[in-house]
Design brief:
The chain is of the alpha+beta class. The protein has a single domain, classed as Roll (Nuclear Transport Factor 2, Chain: A). Helix content is 22%, strand content 22%. It has 6 helices and 9 strands, in the order ααβαααβββββββαβ. 15% of the residues are buried.
């Protein structure tokens, strides 16, 4: 028979009241509360039970109500946040790889979208175009002079390094990048041109490749160009320098829009594995339609050459005086005449990137 459990068989520590001071500790008056209940005497062995954790007075509701409410600091406005971000970028010399389409980018409407030659709307359109082109020329000159004043000594010093505008070479550069981008996109492999595409465009093209049917690829080519690629917009801006920072080469962005009008053809192909006796498996390429179904020889293909008018946006960055290579940002559209008046620059406004489409 087991020995009965008695009080002398166990050595337990004496129970103390929650919040009672221990020996050698000083009593803090502010820990007491009129809401505290008198101590309850515990029966024997009550200390061996698991007692739930009690909430202290410092986190109780009466104390929280008595605490003074702290006022939150007002958040800075969007204009202040934008200015602070620009100063940080100018101070660190860091610019994101993609800043969107620059504000007030004008692409003149063509064809039926352009108003009549002698209409009032056409006169207002040409007047607004001249104002914007004049401002673009001034900002490009400031970019070329390194942000210095027009009559300053540093602006015309031969020892001062200056960025190269090379406006006449831009249409040819855009044409080459346009062909490389579409050719590799059609083949389904963007690794050869991933450093020539901005991140947003690169992610978009990769997503479109991923949804193709298995084994399907494209063959794209330009049959002929209907006109020489034309530069329709050129913007060069410098990021403002932060206060207290020494003069330096600075950072900036050049963005150009080139009109490319051509006849393009696109064909859908599919790779299939064919097994033959003695020779093993081989791969053949067959023509398919958009849904991936094989086309017979007598079936007329829908992939005929079509006219395409595209406005290719290319850009290059300058960080601490070092210019990067040209990259493709994406495509844009013609500017509607109704929105041209709102695009006119206001006094004190710059060409900050606000458009992301």
């Amino acid at each position: 028979m087991s020995r009965p459990l008695t009080r002398t068989a166990l050595k337990t520590q004496p129970c103390t009241r929650l919040g009672a001071p221990t020996r050698g500790a000083s009593l803090q008056p502010w820990l007491s509360s009129p809401h505290d209940k008198p101590a309850r005497r515990l029966p024997p062995f009550q200390c061996l039970r698991l007692v739930g954790q009690q909430r202290g007075f410092s986190v109780s509701a009466p104390c929280a109500a008595a605490m003074p409410k702290m006022k939150r600091a007002a958040a800075p406005s969007m204009a202040v946040q934008t200015k602070q971000q620009r100063e940080r970028m100018a101070r660190d010399g860091g610019l994101p790889d993609e800043m969107g389409l620059l504000n007030n980018t004008l692409v003149m409407p063509s064809g039926k979208k352009r108003p009549g030659l002698f209409s009032k709307e056409r006169r207002e359109l040409e007047k607004s175009r001249l104002k914007l082109r004049f401002q673009e020329a001034i900002t490009a000159l400031q970019y070329k002079l390194g942000g210095h004043g027009f009559w300053s000594k540093e602006a015309w010093s031969w020892s001062t390094p200056r960025p190269q505008l090379r406006i006449l070479q831009i249409p040819g550069i855009a044409k080459t990048l346009h062909e490389e981008m579409y050719r590799n996109f059609a083949a389904g492999d963007l690794s050869p041109v991933e450093k020539k595409l901005c991140k947003g465009l690169l992610h978009s093209l990769r997503a479109r490749i991923s949804i193709r049917p298995p084994g399907v690829f494209l063959k794209w080519k330009v049959d002929r160009y209907l006109e020489t690629p034309k530069l329709v917009s050129y913007k060069a801006i410098r990021m403002p320098k932060a206060k207290g920072m020494p003069d330096g080469p600075g950072s900036g962005l050049v963005q150009a829009v080139v009109r490319i009008r051509s006849m393009q053809s696109l064909q859908h192909w599919k790779r299939e594995s064919v097994k033959s006796r003695g020779a093993g498996a081989s791969i053949r390429e067959v023509r398919v339609d958009i849904r991936g179904r094989e086309l017979s020889e007598n079936t007329e293909s829908e992939d005929t050459a079509k006219e395409a008018v595209e406005y290719v946006v290319i850009q290059k960055m300058m960080r601490n005086g070092v210019e990067s290579d040209w990259m493709v940002w994406g495509m844009t559209e013609e500017t509607a005449p109704s929105t041209l008046t709102a695009m006119l620059p206001k006094p004190g406004s710059g060409s900050l990137p606000v458009n992301s489409a």
